[in-house]
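DM from R.C. (forwarded with permission)

"hey, sorry to bug you on a friday — could you get me a structure for this? deadline for the figure draft is monday and I only need the backbone to look sensible"
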Amino acid sequence: MSNRRDFLKNSALLGLSAAASSLLAGGDLKRVEHFLQADPLKLSLPALPYALNELEPFIDAETMRIHHGKHHQAYIDKLNTVPTDQFDANLPLAESCKKITAASSALLRNNLGGHYNHSLFWTLLKPNPSKKENKPSAKLAQAIEKKFGSLESFNKEFSEKALKVFGSGWCWLLVTKELELKITTTANQDNPLMPVVTEIGTPVLALDVWEHAYYLKYQNKRADYISNWWNIVNWEKAEELYSNAK
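My reply, with the result:
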């Protein structure tokens, strides 16, 4: 594994050097410095698909700044310290999550989960400045109604399970291997892709119920945070995840 990693790194650095030489010939010294400092095998913080304040009034800009820029970044920084014989940074995060076992180190399990969960979470949110009613699209709506009886029943069950998570964790809507929808929760930064959790499946919705996700605006009122979260669910992304899981 280490030889493969060294080969990839050396190859990547050769590529960077070539790119830097090209830029240097063009006189772009600032971009040369950026290329020479880059480490292509280090994971980095994904950019948000919206501005920090665009989820207001449901999630405030300061919470987003800290949650994304501090908490998520911390998971990535720690994940980058995991030995290469335990974690291959070249694999997709979802595939790495599927390799987690009871023998995996807490460093890997917690921070891989933290990186994957948050990366997904940001994409499952979208601005709703007009505060319009927010509902799933046709295919997913039909699947939810078939499984839970109605969208209202689904929202109620999901909200109740999210509210009852003890301490820190996540609430999920997932697709099981039998291609059925199911609501489940996980502790800490575990997720349904990890074979070590009770309910395994492909995530369709993800709700972060760690206190850092809501405490600045909602204090201890997790129920209010959950209620307002429904206004900014990105149902188009959920539909995409649902379609790809089938």
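R.C.: lifesaver. The two ends are 33 Å apart (CA to CA).
me: no worries. The chain is about 50% helix and 10% strand.
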